[in-house]
TrEMBL record:
The keyword Transcription regulation does not apply. Its cofactor is Zn(2+). SMART domains: DEXDc, HELICc. Its EC number is 5.6.2.4. Initiates the restart of stalled replication forks, which reloads the replicative helicase on sites other than the origin of replication. Recognizes and binds to abandoned replication forks and remodels them to uncover a helicase loading site. Promotes assembly of the primosome at these replication forks. This is Replication restart protein PriA. Belongs to the helicase family. PriA subfamily. One of its GO terms (cellular component) is primosome complex. PROSITE patterns: HELICASE_ATP_BIND_1 (PS51192). The gene is priA. GO terms for molecular function: 3'-5' DNA helicase activity; ATP binding; ATP hydrolysis activity; DNA binding; zinc ion binding. Keywords: ATP-binding, DNA replication, DNA-binding, Helicase, Hydrolase, Isomerase, Metal-binding, Nucleotide-binding, Primosome, Zinc. Zn(2+) 1 binds at residues 451, 454, 490, 493.
Length: 744
């Protein structure tokens, strides 16, 4: 049976959607796989070129006779592009996207050099001679001021950037050409490989690992020496020195001629973090971040490919750095939401890193003080090796944490958002000139209904998630569509203090300013950080102690050290706890633990306050005690009971159309298709998405749960096949989201 290969020819220019079919000769059949580098003849002139195989099929797309054979494979064909192409194919199958979308995500696209082309003017005359010429020019009657100025500047610096000469110095290009013709100067162009860290200094100061860090490192090193590669979970409380351990592991891998990728959430990718890596590894480090231009990013990938840098630090997308000899991928703060892509393919960096490491024979280290349930359950099953750092460096104490019951405040007649206890503590810190951070656990919109007298929340009887309140006074479940009218009194205690709880940082700021008129207050939220650099500016001002109180969304507690902060408070922990999706408790626990890690980073002990209407909720109780394992056991029991990830897998099928009717009928059609194919499967919906209409697009969702990931992939394939076959579905767009991190 003849087999055919789809070959892409020019990946460097991003021509990924054009593949060409070639025949696989029988003698090459064993050697050609997805990702293989092959030699083919191309175009009418049949020039010999190289390409990559991105697909293999048994069906010819053209007349058999018109399909040319593959000439051969390229030796040492397992180059970095081959690995990344295999990774793209895995992502396409695993997360649901087109091959083209997956290839565009993983392959480094060279950005045109033109934008980066730089020109320099260089003086060719010896400076003495040039001075002589300058004097002659000046002595002439009709002398040219521009040429003289240029010559003078070149005598001083010998080499000048083109932009400076034509810009600031304002020299016409005719004058430049004239001096060039005389052979006095040369215009040289070179491609500058921008180095974003060029200005930093390497430091010699070295920190030695303490005993528990050493143990964690040695476990990794022993495996490495035996040639064992795998995935490790470095579970260490905040301040236990995880970064120091990563750096030893990186040094080990580098010493064997390998390279390392370090993923850090964008929000904590600060100057300080980068500096820690730079001061240890110097010029071997480079960074990626979202503020870089496409050209700068492309440069970084090029430098990595040529092994001019050997450690890449960056957010999720740095995972695709084309290191040819990758040895290690570190994912810091592994539990962070930002590791899941929000665009198709909706990949998670954790699983994708594990697959990339498998293809490159590398290891993966995941680090967190509050591991995701996914990671910890895999560590418990032995799929990942668990390395623990149970105490803080130099045995620094964790902050003292106090839970304040807001129901009691209400009973005592205090209806302010600031409890009496928190009020006292704020007064005290203001007097001592210490700083305070107040944050609101807000994620998107909180639309739940709860009772301020007893704390209970109205939940879906089938899905155990908070119901979402709508403008029409009804509440509905975002997974199964169950709905009911919002009650006027609490079904549990009869109180009339029941209703939606909505709180913005702005409103809190107002209350704080009114209650503490002497305090200097800064607010940080989506509004105040919208401008470029707004985020860094606010944090910088707070670090310089230009304010006493920083109030904001949870973004203020992520990854920043303020030694003068001795009080941190969550103003309303319930806002993230009562989520309309199943991850609410986990997110709340992580956030509160992380916030506690912010208090008392200096030498003074820190204090944390959690205000809540549900002081008995395990996520609150365990966060206050910093007891991860107790939290894990209880949360995992809930996930198992309800078949939520990671106890099972979940696939969200998102159906979108600018016609409401088209979205609804397509969603109904898919749901029926799936139910018929797998009777008894756990399929919920279709329901209107939580944001039912966004930018004039109507959105529907179907939720499928199963322990077997492959069954979900089969469901995805059914829908994809139907979409291809059915012309009436042209008006809808479908996205797949496996094991979603965010409520859709
Ligand atoms: P984590 O990432 O676990 O929260 P960090 O790596 O940020 O912890 O370390 C916390 C602080 O402890 C840092 O200032 C770091 O320089 C310091 N540190 C780490 N390891 C050691 C060590 N072995 N001896 C002394 N200080 C250390
Ligand atoms: Zn009640
Ligand atoms: Zn439900």
């Amino acid at each position: 049976m003849a087999k055919y290969a789809d070959v892409i020819i020019d990946i460097s220019r991003g021509q990924l959607d054009k593949s060409f079919q070639y025949r696989i000769p029988a003698e090459l059949e064993d050697r050609i796989r997805i990702g293989s580098r092959v030699r083919v003849s191309f175009g009418s002139d049949r020039r010999k070129i190289r390409g990559y195989v991105i697909g293999i099929s048994e069906k010819a797309k053209l007349e058999e006779a018109k399909i040319r054979p593959i000439d051969g494979t390229v030796r040492d064909a397992i180059d970095i592009e081959s690995q990344l192409i295999s990774l793209a194919v895995w992502m396409k199958d695993h997360y649901g996207s087109t091959l083209n979308q997956a290839l565009k995500t993983v392959l480094p696209i060279k950005v045109k050099a033109a934008a980066r082309e730089k020109k320099n003017l260089r003086l060719l005359l010896p400076p003495e001679e040039a001075r002589g010429e300058l004097a002659c020019m000046r002595a002439r009657k009709r002398h040219s001021v521009a040429k003289e100025r240029l010559l003078e500047a070149l005598i001083q610096d010998q080499s000048l950037p083109w932009e400076l000469v034509t810009g600031e110095l304002n020299i016409p290009s005719a004058s430049i050409r004239d001096l060039e013709k005389r052979g006095w100067l040369a215009v040289e162009s070179f491609r500058s490989m921008r180095n974003p860290l060029a200005a930093l200094q390497k430091s010699e100061k070295r920190i030695w690992l303490n005993e528990q860090q050493e143990q964690a490192f040695q476990a990794f090193a022993a495996d490495w020496d035996l040639g064992r590669r795998g995935t490790y979970l470095l579970y260490g409380v905040t301040g236990s020195g995880k970064t120091q351990v990563y750096m030893e592991m990186i040094a080990k891998v580098l010493s064997q001629g390998k390279e390392a990728i370090v993923l850090i959430p964008e929000i904590s990718l600060t100057y300080q973090t980068v500096m820690r890596f730079y001061s240890r590894f110097g010029d071997q480090v480079s960074i990626l971040n979202s503020r870089m231009s496409a050209g700068e990013r492309s440069d970084q990938f090029e430098r990595a490919k040529e092994e001019k840098v050997r450690i890449m630090v960056g957010p999720r997308s740095a995972l695709f750095t084309p290191f040819p000899n990758l040895g290690l991928i570190v994912i810091d703060e592994e539990h962070e939401n930002s590791y899941k892509s929000e665009t198709v393919p909706k990949y998670h960096a954790r699983e994708t890193a594990v697959e990339r490491a498998r293809l490159s024979s590398a290891s993966v280290v995941l680090g967190s003080a509050t591991p995701s349930l996914e990671a910890f359950s895999r560590a418990k099953r032995g799929e990942y090796s668990l390395l623990s750092l149970p105490s803080r460096v130099e045995n620094r104490a964790l902050p003292d944490c106090q839970v304040v019951d807001l129901r009691e405040e209400l009973r005592e007649g205090n209806r302010s958002v600031i409890s009496r206890r928190l009020g006292q503590l704020i007064e005290d810190r203001l007097k001592k000139k210490e700083q305070i951070m107040l944050f609101i656990n807000r994620r998107g919109m909180a639309g739940f209904v709860s009772c301020r007298s007893c704390g209970s929340v109205i939940k879906c009887p089938h899905c155990e998630v908070a119901l979402t309140l709508h403008k029409n006074g009804r509440m509905s479940c975002h997974y199964c569509g169950y709905s009911m009218p919002a009650p006027r009194t609490c079904p549990r205690c009869g109180s009339r203090f029941i209703g939606g709880m909505r709180a913005g940082t702005e409103k809190f700021e107002e209350v704080i300013r009114r209650t503490f008129p002497g305090a200097r207050v800064l607010r940080m939220d989506a509004d105040t950080t919208r401008s470029k650099g707004g985020y860094q500016r606010i944090l910088g001002a707070f670090a310089n102690q230009e304010a006493d109180i920083l109030i904001g969304t949870q973004m203020i507690v992520k990854g920043h050290d303020f030694p003068n902060v001795t009080l941190v408070a969550a103003l309303a922990a319930d806002l993230s706890l009562n989520s309309s999706d199943f991850r609410g408790a986990e997110r709340t626990f992580q956030l509160l633990c992380q916030a506690a890690g912010r208090a008392g980073r200096g030498d003074r002990p820190g204090k944390m306050v959690i205000q809540t209407y549900q002081p008995g909720h395990f996520a609150i109780v365990d966060a206050a005690r910093q007891d991860y394992e107790s939290f894990y056991d209880q949360e995992m029991a809930y996930r198992s009971l309800m078949s939520y990830p990671p106890a099972a897998h979940m696939l969200v099928v998102q159906i979108m159309s600018d016609s409401e009717q088209a979205a609804e009928s397509a969603a109904a059609l898919f749901a029926e298709l799936l139910r018929r194919a797998r009777p008894g499967g756990r399929i919920d919906g279709p329901v209107k998405a939580r944001i039912a209409k966004l930018a004039d697009v109507y959105r529907q969702a179907i939720y499928i749960r199963d322990e077997d990931y492959d069954l979900l992939i089969a469901d995805k394939n059914r829908i994809e096949d139907r979409l291809l076959a059915d012309r009436s579905l042209r008006a809808v767009n479908v996205w797949f989201d496996f094991d979603p991190m965010n409520a859709f």
